[in-house]
Each structure stands twice: as C-alpha cells, then as structure tokens.
Design brief:
Number of helices: 12
Strand order of the largest sheet: 3-4-2-5-1-6-7
CATH architecture: 3-Layer(aba) Sandwich
CATH topology: Rossmann fold
Strand content: 5-15%
Distance between the termini: 11 Å
Bound molecules: adenosine-5'-triphosphate, magnesium ion
Helix content: 40-55%
Number of domains: 1
Radius of gyration: 17 Å
Largest sheet: 7 strands, mixed
Number of strands: 7
Length: about 260
C-alpha cells in the first residue's frame, strides 16, 4: 500500500511545494521508490517545478470533475509521476464545490489506482478549503511545513486543530508525522519562535523534526527555475544535506505509523 503524505500549511510561501518536490526527488532518485505527486494547488507551482506544461493537457481539475480518467491525467517526470494542476483548478472551484460528495472527489478518482506506487505526495494550497478536505480524505500522514516566523508558528496550532477535526468528522486515521521548519536563519528571534512552536507541539503531542532547513534562496530558487531537484542541481550544498536529513526523518515517521 502506498504511503500517502500531504504537505500542508494555510500560510503561503513557507516551503510546502519545495519540500514536496525534494521529497519526491529523493525517494525516486536516491531510494528507487515509485512516487506519485499530486498538485492540489491552483497556483500549479509543483507542476511547474517538475517541468510539466499543462497547456491542452488534462489536470487534476478534469480528474476531480470526472472528465478524465486517472491514467489520462498522469504525467511522467524525472522525480516521479504527477497529476498536474493549473489555474483551472481555481476558476472551476465553484463547480467542484457544487458536486455531491465534493470532499470525496479525489478519493474516488484514486480508488484502486495507487497499487503501483510506494509513495503518494500531495502538495496543498495555502488555504483550508474543499481541495484541502479532498486531501484529508486521502492522506494517511500530514507534514506541517512551517517557515520560522511568528505567524507561521501560530498557524501550526490552527493547522493541527483542523487536521484533528477532519479526523473526527471524516472518521479517518490521519497521523500528523511532524512539523518541518524551513527558512531558518538562526537569529535569536528564530530560536524563540522555535521554542514557541515546540510548546505548541508538546501541547498537541506533535513532533518537530530535528532537522531545520536553512534559508538559501540561490540554490533553491535556481534549481526550481531549471526544474531540477537540489540533489541534482546542488548535491554538495548545505541545504541539500539538510533536505536529505529532513526527508529521512519524514520517511521514518511515516514508517512508524504502520
Ligand atoms: N529553504 C529555502 N531557502 C530560501 N528560499 C526558499 C526555501 N524554500 C523555499 N524557498 C523559496 O520560497 C518561495 C516559496 O516556497 P514554496 O513555493 O515551496 O512555498 P509554498 O508554501 O509551497 O508556497 P504557497 O503557499 O504559495 O504554495 C519560493 O520562491 C522558493 O524558491
Ligand atoms: Mg506551494
């Protein structure tokens, strides 16, 4: 059975897409795993980062609206397969939200289709909406990605509450694998905020991954512009080693759930 992991935070720009892509690349190229990425964000950043052009192609919108079959939506990339997304997911949101069982659309579209995959990695939009609820109907594990910053820290608690509500309402067994900090810059403020989030995590019983991802705009931005993973673009860089360590922690946390 595929491990289904989603990367969430309702706050934008915290590193969800970057983490989803690096995890896909690491599992595919370093671990020989079969990975399916699902882009559930109308911004389509993950889709762009892995070099998929959606012009004239089926995307997650067609899949959710039952206008395309699973097999006809998949694109192959060096870092695994992907169900791509683009702005159509945004302008068709009302249509999707108007469907009977609107929160079950992704679940139904993936039913009996994931047998070939070891991991399904879902990149979420910076929102809590119908798309996120569709993800909660599918995911077994949640990684909360948080930038080191005051508002992000506060958002973690809210995010954990939302996941727990979904567990109750949908009667699903979703495990919060942990909180991953990105864009750390080791200032005093960052340390204080980390302490604050550790408090939140203790209160909620959620682990904070030990590895912190630092702020390194050049390798991260450049690699994304070239549709390459950090492992391919900057194999010797510090941030690449940090991502490898963080992803190992995620893999372990997810394996422990079994
Ligand atoms: N560790 C890092 N150091 C420096 N820049 C980073 C790092 N991680 C991500 N970035 C940059 O920060 C921006 C936001 O990252 P990313 O798209 O991964 O966040 P996101 O949470 O998916 O955003 P959104 O909520 O808009 O989907 C991007 O320009 C990315 O290149
Ligand atoms: Mg994103």
């Amino acid at each position: 059975m595929a491990h289904k992991i989603c990367f969430i935070n309702q706050k934008g720009g915290v590193g969800k897409t970057t983490t989803t892509m690096q995890t896909a690349a690491y599992l595919t190229t370093k671990k020989g795993k079969k990975v399916l990425m699902i882009d559930m964000d109308p911004q389509g950043n993950l889709t762009t980062c892995v070099g998929v052009d959606t012009e004239g192609e089926n995307t997650v919108s067609e899949l959710l609206l039952n206008e395309a079959k699973f097999e006809d939506t998949i694109k192959t990339t060096p870092y695994g397969d992907i169900i791509p997304s683009d702005s159509a997911l945004g302008y068709r949101e009302m249509e999707i939200s108007g469907k009977v069982g609107r929160e079950l659309l992704l679940f139904q579209a993936l039913k009996d289709k994931l047998g070939a995959y070891d991991y399904v990695l879902i990149d979420c939009p910076p929102a809590i909406n119908t798309f996120t609820y569709n993800v909660f109907m599918v995911a077994d594990s949640v990684v909360v990605v948080s930038e080191v910053g005051l508002f992000s820290a506060r958002g973690c608690g809210k995010m954990i509450d939302t996941v727990r509500q979904a567990v109750g309402v949908y009667d699903r067994d979703i495990h919060i694998a942990g909180i991953l900090f990105t864009k750390n810059n080791h200032t005093k403020l960052a340390r204080e905020i980390r302490e604050q989030v550790e408090l939140v995590s203790n209160e909620y019983g959620v682990k904070v991954f030990e590895t912190l991802i630092g702020t390194f705009p050049a390798p991260v931005g450049e690699s994304q512009a070239l549709c390459k993973s950090l492992f391919d673009y900057a194999p010797k860089h510090k941030v690449t080693a940090q991502y490898a360590a963080a992803i190992e922690e995620i893999i372990e946390a997810v394996a422990e759930e079994e």
